[in-house]
Amino acid sequence: LGAELAIECHRTPAELERLIADSEAIARQTYHRDLGVGFADTPELRRLFAFAAEHGWLRGYVLRARGQPLAFWHGLVYRGTFVTRDTGYDPAFAALRPGQYLLHHVIAEHCTTRETARFDYGVMELDYKKNFGTHRYERSSPFVFARRPRGLWLWSLRALSDALERLARRLLGERARGLARKLARLGRGGKTAGAEPRAAEAAEEKE
Questions:
Q1: 128 burial class (0-12, 13-18, 19+ CB within 10 angstroms)?
Q2: One-letter-per-residue 3-state SS of 45-89
Q3: I need a surface site. Which of 5, 86, 104, 195 has the fewest CB within 10 A?
Q4: What tens digit of pLDDT does each residue of 65-122 get?
Q5: How far, CA to CA in Å, does 70 sit from each of 29, 30, 46, 133, 137?
Q6: Residue 9: strand, helix, or coil
């Protein structure tokens, strides 16, 4: 797309409406929306972004081509760390990897300005975190159950749920995202919004 590309970084309260509108235009086309995850224009998100913008923490990046938003990458800058939040891209351009292109720019900008010293990609295992990260650590949540029938029952349900999750991760592996997209397409009648079916399937195979 060459010179037709442009990248914007929204930081101030005055830029919130444009950032949210562009992000929503992309997010409603992604498989995340059908799964009930990812970016969504909600009152809670608006309050968070407004608070972050007032304190100078907000960084909302949007990639455009011919004025059309192709991808977004949201983050918060706090105490030398860029904490990434929601991301998304137009599925019609999946083969061009617009999200990865935007991430390259965001990393390069922070390396140049030295505004931050580290990126925190948050939870979940995704390819871009392995490709553009240097450290990995695990967190665990402790649960305490009473030694009574109800406590033992709750413990057994929790243990069963954890075992099934581990099994699913081993069976699905790196195909989990592709499966999620296929399930989302089925929910839309077999077609990915904003992309031709063959193009979307080809992009999934590459991933």
A1: middle
A2: HHHHHHHHHHCCCEEEEEEEECCEEEEEEEEEEECCEEEEEEEEE
A3: 104
A4: 988 999 999 999 999 999 999 999 999 999 999 999 999 999 999 999 998 999 998 8
A5: 11, 11, 21, 24, 32
A6: strand
